[in-house]
Amino acid sequence: MLAIEEKINEVEEKIDKWLIDRLDSSIPRNKYIYHCNLAFIDIVIDQKILFTPFEKHYLFSLSYNTHIAHLKLKEELNFDYSFDHALYAFAFDMILRGMQYSMLCDIFPLLHSGKATMRIEGSNIFFDVRSIPKKNYRYISDYSIRKALSYTLQTANGKFTNWDDEKIAMKLSDLYIHFWNENMIYSDYEPYSRLDWGGISFFFIVASMRRFNKLYKKDFDIVSLDSQKMMILLSHKGVEELRGFVPTTNDELYKMALEDNIYKPIGKGSFPKLSVSEAPLNSTKDGFIFANPLVILFNDSLETRFLNYLRKSDNERYLRIKDKIKERVIPLIIEMIKYKFPETVSIPNFHVKIPLKKKNKRECDLLIVDECGFALYLEIKHFYYPQSFCETKKVDAELTKALEKMPDQLNAISENWGNIKSTYRINTELTELHGIIVSHRYLGYDVEIDLQTPIVSAANLYESIAEANNLREVFLGCKEIDDIYPTVRFIRKELSCYFAGYNFNLEIECLDPLFEISLIKSYREQIYRNVTSTKPKSFDNISDLAHAYLEEFKS
């Protein structure tokens, strides 16, 4: 047993050093990062990698190559962005190798945690990975959202064919901004405002949409368009003009808002802790800024990207903002329930006694009871997608803990029903009680599927409320996630790759094309309505927001 563990560590050490050792320290840093972005665009568009399971590995590769460039390469005084054929060929190979490294980075933590085994036959290495309960939940959820976003932009592009390019870019940017359903307000972007941060973000979204429009008109033929024309490149003068898009008169706040969008490596280790999607701007010593429009457009929402960046670079600020967002979730759910089912009673932030526990009094998040005595208890979490295996393991442990606590909490609610009934003036006996765990986005990876207690995203819950005719149907709608996601078919194939002196035999999974066809078909009418909609894009109060959610998800 010890011998195989030593061999795993030996192989892992070799693969962790292989790419960074290949990187020639004489290459200028920004020129290398720029050419890695060109290679990324060419590969992802030409090979149709967007929205496939491979995409996350290529994004990791770009993040990894950017990170090791900051660690090993010296930054040049003057940024030379002219195309270098030899450097491009090397960067292209490093992006491909980085993709392979990403796949291996998914395997080795599973080996260390006993969820996979490794077999060595000469220079060939084979893996046997045990079944992970929610292995593809994140991909399916992300795919559904992001594919709909891409289809929305393409539908809009086709509809606006007769418009001039700048008008199209502005309209696409407006659609993009309002595509995401987030719960952040102006004061969340402390110490600057949402307008300040949004001014910078909107500037780069418009710039990205100009390039998306060009790509669409070329029918996504990146060879005829040229990836250099896709890159966003601001000279020192262009960066000065960016200042005009930010309303604050305080130059220090402007610089802070800009810095919160600029990539800076975290830590001295070779594994990247920050994704380029979380800080997509690259700055140079001589005042240039360059960015990749695919990284900006086709990852997470602006708000999620912002919070993920803060979580890693300014955790104190992140926790303050996260807590404020979580506090707004419960009132929003209550308002939606009240509007949809006026006879229900909602009880937020209440306490119950837990029998036979040291801390026998526990605060509970939200209990909803209908006129027939059917009740739902909602445990509210606010988990963003973890980026590393360690983060995933930690958040999975939190979700598992919440699942394990749920029976005690439901039992305590039942046992304390008399007190709850009199305190909150409920006029019915408890006839049925179920629990739901509501996470912000993340539904778990190595977390068991509990047939009694579904884990759903806030969007899943809102949709279930909108579509339901009663509280029981809200619960059944939430349970559908665990009924549907495990049945989504993936096609498995063997992949052999040479890396660090070994020939690794991996298994890859691709989404069944029939699922993609059915998804687009189901979204087509809804997307067309959204593109042509004249509904308001902002709301004055939580009541209006709740009603807008209900109308959107009901359609």
Fold topology:
Layout lengths: L1 H21 L6 H18 L8 H18 L12 H28 L3 E6 L2 E6 L7 H23 L5 H13 L16 H24 L4 H4 L6 E3 L1 H7 L8 H9 L21 E3 L5 E3 L1 H5 L4 H12 L1 H26 L4 E9 L7 E9 L4 E7 L8 H27 L1 H7 L8 E8 L15 E3 H10 L3 H14 L5 E10 L2 E10 L1 H20 L9 H13 L1
Parallel strand pairs: 2-12, 8-9, 9-10
Antiparallel strand pairs: 1-2, 3-5, 4-5, 6-7, 7-8, 11-12
Helix pairs in contact: 1-4, 2-3, 2-4, 3-4, 5-6, 5-18, 6-7, 12-13, 13-16, 13-19, 16-17, 16-19
Structure description:
With 555 residues, the chain is of the alpha/beta class. The protein folds into 2 domains: 283 residues, no CATH class; 238 residues. It is built from 19 helices and 12 strands. It has a 5-stranded mixed beta sheet, sandwiched between helices. A 4-stranded mixed beta sheet has the order 1-2-12-11. Strands 3-5-4 form a 3-stranded antiparallel beta sheet, with helices on both faces. A hairpin with a 4-residue loop joins strand 7 and strand 8. Helix 6 crosses helix 7, helix 13 runs parallel beside helix 16 and helix 13 crosses helix 19. The radius of gyration is 25 Å and the shape is globular. It starts with a helix and ends with a helix. About 1% of the residues have low confidence.
